[in-house]
């Protein structure tokens, strides 16, 4: 495989690293935020007004371009990588090499279904640009009363100030790929050190990033899927941590939202339980706002000695009850991308199967009349696990393994398989769940869920199912908390002296 990689390596070695990262910045800003591209970075298709897809411009290829620039570009000297001809040639070489690595994979016939899943993890996230609603979702998690003190202890600023900082970074990133911290001179003295400390936490020199990339690089079927250290350190410098460049602003935003999970998990052993409770509360707020007068909501109940707990949420309308179990559960990079004799994705699905088993255990008790706050009334009951992170639950690889592992959970816990037959389960992400609730509000819980779990649609991605059967449900749901950042913008701050 390395012999096939060498032409790309040699091509990239002719370019200057910093101009290459500047090019990835402009492509990222164009793809994710619709900013105009400099003319010299447009290929003929883009000049003719064709779509990014028809022009061959994809987020995952731009990210891989940034990785290869860091790995092979010249820190000093080299030709500028600032024209569409060179940039698109590099991305074309990357695309062909990815195809080649798959073609050389001896077990591709056995792994083709897994390959479809990891393509989803690689490419689908780039189709959902960051929005105020997404930022608000993270803000609501981190500002939960049990989580907010952990944020302040770890970063030296309140959750509100942290998200104000994210907005200030984003504002600077609109104008140029370098961060000048223009807001800092006017900020209170007490916040300056925490801001710079956070910047240093997520930045590395180009030499350090190159070394980290060399360590993670894989010259086999996983070449295009190995972890990009830029996701951990989205700010790059030439040796001065106070003079940084951001070649991929969407990755910076992801690091300062989703990526904080790892910082806080390492800092406080209680974070896992706290963020789980925060997610449960967020799901409740989503249902309250979308459901309004349509749904009746019943939150988790606790009773008995030893204490027993119900499902996290029950959503009821005229047609059915939806039993919702909330799981923050995330996938590590290996689970998302690695092809191996024992793919890590299967171990991750096993954890998810445990969540499904837990859901059916409490569902059985509820249907037997054991819940103090809900009794069966003959209406259908639909069990669902809602995850915070995207698992891209679709296709035969995912469902073949999940169904098999759920059956093992039934055997382990002595559960009646009739439950599974009468009440088929669903799994979706919180973003999809918001769209699902929007669809159910317009139709009904039973009509939407019954169609989704039917043989024709069960293995479909929920997002795709909703787009096809309930157009507008996902896009309308994206605005659920579009005003959620207003409190951040208008809140007290040492950054803006309000």
TrEMBL record:
It comes from the Bacteria. This is NERD domain-containing protein.
